[in-house]
Design goal:
- By secondary structure, the protein is mainly alpha-helical.
- It has one domain.
- The chain contains six helices and no strands.
- It is elongated.
- It comes from Zunongwangia profunda (strain DSM 18752 / CCTCC AB 206139 / SM-A87).
- InterPro entries: DUF4199.
Length: 179
């Protein structure tokens, strides 16, 4: 139980750093080109950044705990705390940008997403009626509302919790005296 406190204290700063980096990426994409929010490579870049941070958090926490064992629970906490904090910071920044600073940017991204969806569906040869219906759904939904951003945060947490479980399996270390 006392390991849990030190695990949290070591892992928490990584969440703050991750949140700052994800927020900077969002701010830079907002500042330079809103089309980046519809690009697959921004998502892949964010994914890689998050994985790197979680692995570093696991390694640093495992060293800092300095016990012969690094139980599964501690290994899970070492990667889940940073992602929970980092995504929360990033979500708050997105909410501020797209709901208070520049709500028109949210509408622009929605329109760009609809255009991208249309182009992709046309390449797949879907009937025009289906394309129009799908584009209308994209235009009517606003992923930048407070409620939708909070839902997105919860879904992302669930996804990253599964990744954290995998990382915990990799980084856990059994007590050599119990083996």
């Amino acid at each position: 139980m006392e390991n849990s406190t030190s695990v949290k204290s070591v892992a928490s700063p990584f969440g703050i750093y991750l949140g700052i980096i994800l927020s900077l990426i969002t701010i830079l994409a907002y500042t330079f080109n809103l089309k980046l929010f519809t690009s697959w490579y921004l998502g892949v870049f964010n994914f890689i950044i998050i994985i790197i941070f979680l692995i570093i958090s696991e390694i640093k926490t495992r060293k800092a705990v300095a016990n012969p064992a690094f139980p599964f629970k501690d290994a899970f906490i070492a990667s889940f705390i940073p992602i929970a904090i980092g995504l929360l910071i990033s979500t708050i920044v997105s909410i501020i940008i797209f709901n208070f600073v520049d709500p028109e940017a949210a509408q622009t991204v929605i329109e760009l997403t609809a255009e991208m969806s249309r182009n992709m569906m046309e390449r797949f040869g879907l009937p025009e009626a289906e394309i129009e219906k799908a584009v209308a759904e994209v235009l009517e939904s606003n992923q930048f509302t407070l409620l939708n951003q909070l839902k997105s945060y919860i879904f992302q947490l669930a996804f990253w919790a599964a990744i954290s479980l995998i990382l915990a399996l990799i980084f856990r270390k059994k007590d050599p005296q119990t083996i």
